[in-house]
Amino acid sequence: MTIKIGDTLPEGSLAEFIEVESEGCSLGPNTFKVADLTKGKTIAIFGLPGAYTPTCSAKHVPGYVALAADLKAKGVDEIWCISVNDAFVMGAWGRDQKSTGIVRMMADGNADFSKALGLDADFSKFGMGTRSQRYSLLAVDGVVKQLNIEEGGKFEVSNAETLLAQLG
Question: Where does the Thioredoxin domain lie (predicted)?
Answer without folding.
Answer: 3-168
